[in-house]
């Protein structure tokens, strides 16, 4: 692709994003090229590492076109449903599951499979690698958020999060979460109506996370916050071009507004938390404020703010994506729906009228969890992760130079028949306990929640909110039929169904 077409593409992307102003679009392209040229010189400096390494053997692969590398091919694969196409083409071309490339201005190595995941976990534990989210993402989340911090600070944050997001803490909020879920289903799902599943689950995932964390349930405050969150989420997945009208600029504004809201909630809770210290508070934010690590240290104000924002961002689209595809699989597999009905009617029959949900109910929804796990195997909401080498390291006979990125994807293990028989088949029984014990899931072959020291801290929360949604849908006896049966999967900015999964609800 020549430089002119790249420029046109950038202008088109930018114009599609938000600008209809030709002058601004041209300005954007010029700025983009200036930035790229500066970045290219920095990137070249990193790649000098290669030249000094006379005897080192880099993995096979192509570094693509100038500073652009293979970014456009990668983005095109994402647009077609995920990174799999990009990975498969290169794996076949270079006859190697590990290959070098250049993405988003960085020389990178792509690895795949459970062994590669183990190599990444060990490397991170030995501090030869570290988690490496793009800096514009961290700019939006905050530099004190868990993905941005390392070492002792990160360990402290994770200890505190374990206490606040584990089953013990969730037991205190699950009853309220159940009531909220029931209300959501009653409001959104009505017999004979057409709704968008994507809109429903996004609204649900946001409301449940925001209410349980911050205790804010009132309208219109909640809907306004959801609007801000969508802007932030779009900025996280777009081009980091900070110009008036751009997605990124809107995301920064949304971040600032959300921060103000979170700061004010923290101040209110700090006052009331001091009053109830010693008692057990229901809100997760109050628990975060009161929590201490093993040395008795609390989170600072900046940490509280960035951690809270991260929790909502991390749990929002991921849970919505999981529910979207779970509902799609349930619709397409009547036998799966039948087993869900049995499970949820069984759980409901054990409860007295008006009794709230408990954490034990969630863990008893075993088949539901198997359905959700199988959904995340086939449609992992997070596509992959990025690490950065802190020194030259060896893998599979190759050298990966210091400062390079290493990229892994979930799909590369989840859809590999070495780990999952008949991998493209939706089969929740893979995750039912008896079967799992028999077949022995290979360690690090199932990684929807990431790997290593930065793996997800919200697994129990995600399990709670997604299981409750399915519970109330099934108990309301709803059935649904897609109005777009051949709807495509889209991947930018988040994995979802391209037309929002429109359905007709029936009972
Ligand atoms: C189905 C739902 C979810 C999926 C698939 C998911 C997946 C992931 C993945 C893959 C990562 C690791 C990213 C990396 O490699 O750096 C991650 C990190 C994280 N997730 Fe989740 N997540 C989900 C829900 C949640 C929820 C509900 C919360 C909180 C309430 C949450 C909180 C976090 C946090 C705090 C991190 C950062 C951990 C760290 O950097 O130490 N996640 N998640």
From TrEMBL:
<dbReference type="InterPro" id="IPR001128">
    <property type="entry name" value="Cyt_P450"/>
</dbReference>
<keyword id="KW-0503">Monooxygenase</keyword>
<dbReference type="GO" id="GO:0005506">
    <property type="term" value="F:iron ion binding"/>
</dbReference>
<keyword id="KW-0175">Coiled coil</keyword>
<keyword id="KW-0479">Metal-binding</keyword>
<dbReference type="Pfam" id="PF00067">
    <property type="entry name" value="p450"/>
</dbReference>
<keyword id="KW-0560">Oxidoreductase</keyword>
<feature type="coiled-coil region">
    <location>
        <begin position="248"/>
        <end position="275"/>
    </location>
</feature>
<keyword id="KW-1133">Transmembrane helix</keyword>
<keyword id="KW-0472">Membrane</keyword>
<keyword id="KW-0408">Iron</keyword>
<feature type="binding site" description="axial binding residue">
    <location>
        <position position="456"/>
    </location>
    <ligand>
        <name>heme</name>
    </ligand>
</feature>
<comment type="similarity">
    <text>Belongs to the cytochrome P450 family.</text>
</comment>
<keyword id="KW-0812">Transmembrane</keyword>
<dbReference type="GO" id="GO:0016705">
    <property type="term" value="F:oxidoreductase activity, acting on paired donors, with incorporation or reduction of molecular oxygen"/>
</dbReference>
<dbReference type="GO" id="GO:0020037">
    <property type="term" value="F:heme binding"/>
</dbReference>
<dbReference type="GO" id="GO:0004497">
    <property type="term" value="F:monooxygenase activity"/>
</dbReference>
<dbReference type="InterPro" id="IPR002401">
    <property type="entry name" value="Cyt_P450_E_grp-I"/>
</dbReference>
<dbReference type="InterPro" id="IPR036396">
    <property type="entry name" value="Cyt_P450_sf"/>
</dbReference>
<dbReference type="GO" id="GO:0016125">
    <property type="term" value="P:sterol metabolic process"/>
</dbReference>
<keyword id="KW-0349">Heme</keyword>
<feature type="transmembrane region" description="Helical">
    <location>
        <begin position="20"/>
        <end position="43"/>
    </location>
</feature>
<protein>
    <recommendedName>
        <fullName>Cytochrome P450</fullName>
    </recommendedName>
</protein>
